[in-house]
Recover the amino acids of this structure.
């Protein structure tokens, strides 16, 4: 039955080559931790993606409870953390995953750097990877404000002050992030929108480019 | 036009457009790994299963952390709270600490926010165009490697200094971070049999016309708040609902001898035993329900 459905679709769209290309490509020995234990350093990229998937899924569940306004943001997080079944676990995964994804990405970047894998012909993939890094930091910064407790509030205030000190464009960056005269209701809705829509959208596009390029060029050879 | 120079040549098109499919063009197919020595294997399922094993180890560690250490949550943001020590998330600490140094702050702040980080992150972003040599092994690229290791050392150093500085500030101002404070309170409340941590604001004052209130106004409310809600961020507990967690005898003891190493002073000298008894009796009546 399932095979019939698959064949019916495949006849029309020729989908087999797409997934066979992903499934069948050969993975060389020098990146395989089953052959060389030290090759675990090549796992950091995959683990970054794994944690990113966890972040997306846990974040989706968090938005089922989170209310992005200054009266209810804290209360909704408090409710989620202490009253909702497994709410503390899901929020914990998102909170600690945010740190872990930075750690994994940092290690992945160092692996690529020290194995010289960013060299020709993979320059573009390195640049895209660095952009992903900056997006992740942006996600960390915007997500930090959302629980709307004192720690979140004052860290964001300092962050916006730092951004303001950039010459010429600083005041505009401040206005863009803050949305008003003070860090307040509009800042929270903006940070929420940036954290949940803008940055993840950019992240997914860059990840697609990152993976497309690695498939096209293959992983770098042994040293 | 659709045909090649030779009319009998088989022409393959991309889809149904007039773009001819390229054959044998360089760099369009991934390299064949059978060219490498050793045992290569298919991505799915062989390799992915091995990578998944690494993933599972990470996942278990991650879930253990998540369950052992609940995500922190302090008290609601209060813009008028001047005593709060601002602290970014740990991965921004290096930048936060960096901006505290005098030669990248004040008049030179542009150097600190745009100049040096701009050069450092710009160089990182454009690394493939700066380090263009063919050599890939790090020990054969001394300049690039040395620059990276120097950056890493400064990164770790700045983060460590920033964290130490924060701990020092906490110790100096005798502050417990809010999320710890909150957790402790919740635990204390749970231990003393209170079902939930009630929002203080919702607890009414019982029998507010009692003459004990005059003594309270004179002696207690300068710290515990004129609304008796205490002051969360400086660790002063609310007096509303205090009867839920303390008996009259406990309250007499606290008022007479103080608590928390002088955080709550002793009122032995300023109140008579009768007055203390009167205040404690009234406070013991302050129950949420």
């Amino acid at each position: 039955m399932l095979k019939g459905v698959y064949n019916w679709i495949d006849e029309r769209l020729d989908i087999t080559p797409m997934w066979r290309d992903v499934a069948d490509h050969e993975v060389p020995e020098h990146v395989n931790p089953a052959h060389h234990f030290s090759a675990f350093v090549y796992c950091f990229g995959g683990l970054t993606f794994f944690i990113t998937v966890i972040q997306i899924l846990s974040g989706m569940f968090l938005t089922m409870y989170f209310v992005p306004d200054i009266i209810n943001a804290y209360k909704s997080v408090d409710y989620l953390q202490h009253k909702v079944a497994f709410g503390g676990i899901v929020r914990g995964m998102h909170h600690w995953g945010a740190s872990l994804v930075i750690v994994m990405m940092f290690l992945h970047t160092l692996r690529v750097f020290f194995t010289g894998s960013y060299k020709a012909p993979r320059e573009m993939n390195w640049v895209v990877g660095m952009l992903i890094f900056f997006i992740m930091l942006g996600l960390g910064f915007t997500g930090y404000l959302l629980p709307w407790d004192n720690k979140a509030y004052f860290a964001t205030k300092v962050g916006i002050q730092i951004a303001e000190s950039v010459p010429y464009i600083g005041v505009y960056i401040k206005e863009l992030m803050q949305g008003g005269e003070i860090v307040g209701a509009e800042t929270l809705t903006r940070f929420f929108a940036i954290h949940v829509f803008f940055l993840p959208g950019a992240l997914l596009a860059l990840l697609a480019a990152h993976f497309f390029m690695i498939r096209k060029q293959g992983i770098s050879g042994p040293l | 036009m659709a045909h090649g120079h030779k009319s009998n040549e088989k022409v393959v098109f991309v889809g149904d457009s007039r773009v001819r499919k390229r054959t044998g063009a360089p760099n369009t197919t991934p390299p064949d790994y059978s060219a490498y020595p050793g045992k290569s294997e298919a991505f799915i399922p062989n390799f992915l299963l091995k990578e998944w094993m690494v993933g599972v180890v990470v996942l278990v560690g991650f879930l253990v952390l998540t369950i052992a250490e609940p995500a922190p949550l302090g008290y609601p943001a209060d813009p008028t709270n001047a005593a709060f020590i601002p602290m970014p998330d740990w991965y921004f600490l290096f930048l936060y600490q960096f901006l505290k140094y005098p030669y990248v702050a004040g008049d030179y702040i542009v150097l600190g926010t745009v100049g040096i980080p701009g050069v450092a992150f710009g160089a990182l972003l454009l690394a493939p165009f700066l380090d263009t040599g063919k050599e890939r092994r790090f020990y054969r690229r001394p300049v690039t490697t040395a620059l990276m290791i120097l950056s890493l050392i400064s990164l770790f150093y700045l983060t460590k200094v920033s964290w130490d500085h924060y701990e020092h500030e906490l110790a100096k101002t005798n502050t417990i971070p809010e999320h710890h404070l909150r957790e402790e309170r919740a635990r204390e409340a749970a231990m003393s049999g209170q079902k939930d941590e009630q929002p203080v604001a919702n607890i009414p004052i019982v029998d507010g016309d009692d003459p004990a209130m005059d003594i309270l106004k004179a002696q207690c409310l300068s710290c515990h708040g004129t609304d008796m809600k205490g002051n969360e961020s400086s660790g002063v507990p609310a007096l509303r609902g205090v009867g839920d967690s303390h008996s009259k005898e406990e309250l007499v003891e606290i008022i007479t001898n103080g608590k928390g190493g002088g955080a709550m002073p002793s009122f032995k000298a300023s109140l008579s035993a009768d007055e203390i008894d009167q205040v404690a009796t009234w406070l013991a009546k302050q129950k949420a329900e």
DSSP finds nine helices and one strand in chain A. Strands of chain A lie at 26-27.
